Amino acid sequence: MITILLSTYNGAQFLSDQLASFEAQTDRNWCLLWRDDGSSDATREIMAGFAGRIGAERCREAPNSGIHLGAGQSFLSLLAAAKDARIIAFADQDDVWLPEKLARARLALSGQNSGPRLYTARQYLVDANLQSRRLSNLPARKPGFPACLTQNVVHGNTAVMNRAAADLICRIPGPAGTVHDWWSYIVVSACGGSITVDPKPVVLYRQHEGNLIGSPRTTVARAVGAIKRGPDIFMTMMRRHVRQLEAHGDLLAATARADLARIAAGLDGGFAPRLSAMRCPGLSRQTPLENLLFRLWFVLG
């Protein structure tokens, strides 16, 4: 059984399309655990109608539903509530899943390796009307640690994990301001788990004015957006991620623990420790332009 985790917040405009795409999955062995993050529109009524149609045993509302936590903490609280789930899939309220999404994720997570495993996939970026398909990029570099500290390459609307990965993420609480998909990527990578990137798109990622994050069209657009935001937000979040991992160092892989100590020394130290930290293999973003900007921000502190 795959447990789908859905956090809703004023999603009435597009929610029905997403729910219909769950029902259209070729892998029918799923159930839905959802929580509302304090909606004021018809979201809850839509979810009640869906539960009535597919049955309460397949569509269950989380006990803390209705309390506003913000998207990241809402999803992480759902993950904590899914204690008995063997395979867990994050789902956004405004996308549309392609029919083989769950089947491909289940296959990717199967096999002999019982360690923590996290699956992500490409997407079709579409407009609000699900038109103008554009294929998302594949990571240019192999995902893992410490690259996960510099950039998130796990798309939350495609992310699926096994029980071992979920247990680790629940044991290391996400710091304030983090997003669930990035934190999941960081924890699984730091603890020696595996990240699988499916080259086939499995989701129609709807781009609209209400997107929490959205996806810039080009690398240059991403870099320009980062420059406009400035280094403070990024470096603050990096420090929070590093501090939270340090507090749970006993769970980390030995190589990750060594790299983390070097990176933490760089964040706390002057120019020389920062240069030393930047020599950690893999501490880089996906493209040369983005990496140049990251290195400048890291050196400047």
Describe the structure.
The protein is an alpha/beta fold and 301 residues long. The chain has two domains: 2-206, Spore Coat Polysaccharide Biosynthesis Protein SpsA, Chain A, CATH 3.90.550.10; 219-300, no CATH class. Helices cover 41% and strands 15% of the residues. It has helices spanning 15-23, 43-54, 71-81, 101-109, 163-171, 180-190, 219-229, 231-246, 254-268, 271-277, 288-300, and strands at 2-8, 30-36, 59-61, 87-91, 96-97, 117-121, 124-126, 134-135, 160-162, 194-198, 203-206. The strands form two sheets. The protein has a seven-stranded mixed beta sheet, sandwiched between helices. Strands 5-11-7-8 form a four-stranded mixed beta sheet. Helix 2 (43-54) links the parallel strand 2 and strand 3 (59-61). The longest helix has 16 residues, at 231-246. The protein starts with a strand and ends with a helix.
Summarize the structure.
By secondary structure, the chain is α/β, with parallel strands linked by helices. 41% of the residues lie in helices and 15% in strands.
Produce the secondary structure layout.
Elements: E1 2-8, H1 15-23, E2 30-36, H2 43-54, E3 59-61, H3 71-81, E4 87-91, E5 96-97, H4 101-109, E6 117-121, E7 124-126, E8 134-135, E9 160-162, H5 163-171, H6 180-190, E10 194-198, E11 203-206, H7 219-229, H8 231-246, H9 254-268, H10 271-277, H11 288-300
Parallel strand pairs: 1-2, 1-4, 2-3, 6-10, 7-11
Antiparallel strand pairs: 4-9, 5-11, 6-9, 7-8
Helix pairs in contact: 5-6, 8-9, 9-10
